[in-house]
Amino acid sequence: DVQMTQSPSSLSASVGDRVIITCRPSQSIDDYLNWYQQSPGKAPKLLIYAASTLQSGVPSRFSGSGSGADFTLTISSLQPEDFAIYYCQQSYSIPWTFGQGTKVEIK
Amino acid sequence: EVQLLESGGGLGQPGGSLRLSCVASGFSFSTHAMSWVRQTPGKGLEWVSSISDTGARSYYRDSVKGRFTISRDNSKNTVYLQMNSLRAEDTALYYCANYIATTGGFSLVYWGQGTLVTVSS
Fold this sequence. Notes:
Number of helices of chain B: 0
Radius of gyration of chain A: 13 Å
Largest interface: A-B, 29 and 21 residues
Distance between the termini of chain A: 35 Å
Largest sheet of chain A: 7 strands, mixed
Number of strands of chain B: 11
Strand content of chain A: over 45%
Oligomer: heterodimer
Number of helices of chain A: 0
Distance between the termini of chain B: 39 Å
Number of strands of chain A: 11
Order of helices and strands of chain B: EEEEEEEEEEE
Helix content of chain A: under 10%
Radius of gyration of chain B: 14 Å
C-alpha cells in the first residue's frame, strides 16, 4: 500500500496567514493526488484533484502543486471558514490511501 | 443539488452482518462509479470499496475482501455494502461517495453524511 504522510499534523494560524501543508507518498504517484477539506461534523469536500486542479466552486486562495512524491496544498490567505482538517489522498494504486490529516486551528 | 443519503448503520454483533444503503439524487447515477469510505478517530479515512458505473467491476481493500460485497441497483439509484463476518475493527462512520476519472486518477467528488457502524457484543 502507498503510505501518505502529511506534515504538519496540526498548525495554528491567524486569519490572513499563508498556510502550506505537505503530503509525501511512500512512492511516486505521478499526479494522482487529491486534497480534501473536512469541517467539524461534515463529510470531506474535494478541493483539488490531479495535484493542482481546483475543483469547481472552490475559492482561488486554495492551490496545489507537486508531482511524484512531494505535494503541497497552499492557502494563500486563511479565512475563518478554512479552519478544518485537510487530507491528501492518492488514487495511483488500490487501495486508495489517505494521509493522516492536518488540523488547521485558530491562533 | 447532489445528495447521497446513507442508511443501515447501527449495532452489529461480531461475526454478524449489516447492509448499508446509499440513495443518490441530483446527478446521473447510472453513469457514475461509487465508493464506500470509512472513518475512525484512530485510523482516519480509509477507502473500503468501489464499484463501476455498470456494476461490472468492483474493488476492495484487503481487510474486507471476502467479507464485504459492494453492489448497485441503477433502477433505484442505490449502492449497497453488504458487510458480513463483522469485526470490532469495522466500527466506523461509513460514507458513500461518487468518484470520477480525471487527468490525474480518480477523485471522490460528492459524499454523503455517513452512517455509523458499531461492532460490539
